[in-house]
């Protein structure tokens, strides 16, 4: 069995070049590839196109890449927690493609499944429709949306094995599994790395065939975006 383990995030991402298209897993700040993002910061890779559900916050996650002007384009669904993102968007420094969340998820899933296009009603009759093919099905209008794929997918799992099989926990299971399937090269960081064969096959969310590199991450902050508690 192929051993896909690499030493750390720097080794895993060393061939990511300027101008690469990246998928970055997670939902809000939950399940984001913290070590991978730090490696991109350390290597000062620029002109990135980042596909992510959100853009992090000003001082964490993808927000750090935005602060360092390493991102050329964001393809996202929700970006409301990041003032620097807003500033770059309004000043014309950053290209942005805002996509309805369900459409974003399906475009990524389609990329991993090898489906080049599909029809959805979301966005018909709005700015989202501009430049896209429309078609009527059973009396209802739909937009054609194309798949999304990436040069590299950076995902974060709770547990993985040396063959690249992954188990996600809670909300981290949202975008990470579909992004793992849609990258030409998928880099997985995990909180716990075990030998191949130790994971229960019934609990695996992403089979190792989708993962090319895996490493055990460290120093996870797991920051909470907005903590709400009763008074």
Task: Provide an overview of this structure.
The structure is a single chain. This protein is an alpha/beta fold. The chain has a domain at 17-98 and 150-216: 3-Layer(aba) Sandwich (Glutaconate Coenzyme A-transferase), CATH 3.40.1080. It contains six helices and eleven strands. It has helices at residues 9-13, 34-43, 62-67, 83-91, 101-113, 176-182, and strands at residues 21-24, 48-51, 71-76, 95-98, 117-120, 134-137, 140-146, 150-161, 166-167, 183-194, 213-216. Strands 1, 2, 3, 4, 8, 9, 10 and 11 form an eight-stranded mixed β-sheet that branches. It has a three-stranded antiparallel β-sheet with strand order 5-7-6. Helix 3 links the parallel strand 2 (48-51) and strand 3 (71-76). Helix 5 (101-113) crosses helix 6. The radius of gyration is 18 Å and the shape is globular. The chain starts with 8 loop residues before the first helix and ends in a 15-residue tail after the last strand. Belongs to the 3-oxoacid CoA-transferase subunit A family. Keywords: Transferase.
Summarize the entry for a quick read:
This protein is an alpha/beta fold. Helix content is about 20%, strand content about 25%.
Order of helices and strands: HEHEHEHEHEEEEEHEE
Q: Give the CATH architecture of the domain at 17-98 and 150-216.
A: 3-Layer(aba) Sandwich
Low-confidence stretches: none
By CATH, the superfamily of the domain at 17-98 and 150-216 comes out as Glutaconate Coenzyme A-transferase
